[in-house]
Amino acid sequence: MAERDFLPPIPDTARGPNTPALFLSLFLLVLAFFILLVTISTLEEVKTKSVMDSLTSTFTSIVPPSTDPTRFKSKEGDLIAGQQYQETVTDIFAAALQVAQVKVVHPGRLMQVQIPASTLFAEDAARILPSQFELLDRIVAAASGRPPGLRFDLEFIIGSRVRADGGLPQSQTLELARAGAFAREMAQRGLPPDSIAIGIEPGDPNDVTMWFYIRRETETQLRLDGGGEE
Predict the structure, then answer these.
(1) Alpha-carbon gap, residue 165 to 85, rounded angstroms
(2) What's the pLDDT tens digit per position in 184-198?
(3) Cα torsion through 18, 21, 26, 31, rounded to 10
(4) DSSP per residue, 93-110
(5) How many CB atoms lie within 10 A of CB 187?
């Protein structure tokens, strides 16, 4: 056998894979990919910041970042409670007095009810008609159901004739007696005395106006401490 038959084959380096070059190419490809990702991320961050800055500049005067969100929840809850109270009062008068005129002056805060005095009082007397006792009881029950932090106040105003000089009478009149009788009757039925106010105004003695206020207790405290009006 010839000697060349025992020589090991010589590897052909020209045909084999170039491992270092392959790894270098792969590394460059991965590096380029990460550079692309970083670039895209930077652009998205810039876009996001621009959008947020735009929103902040648009709405900062409406809802400042320092605003406590619980204040909005509290106010919203007070408004809902006030509106529910107004709906209850509306239903009470709609069922008891068809002649009552109900007007919501400020939703959740103030409403007005106008009724003829003749439907509430005995003729020419400062005495509540027994047929209206249920009406008073329902008003007291509605006012007693106030949620914590709120007050349901009532102002009773009745029309009165004026004196010759244009002023309101200073002596006892039927209108003053009726206003006092209404306040006493409501207090006896459970309405807190500090929740009702009475008065007279120039006008027809048969005109009765009731104002139903929904107030926060803190507002009432501030008004008492400061001696001012709401």
Answers:
(1) 41
(2) 999 999 998 889 999
(3) 170
(4) HHHH-TT-EEEEEETTTE
(5) 14
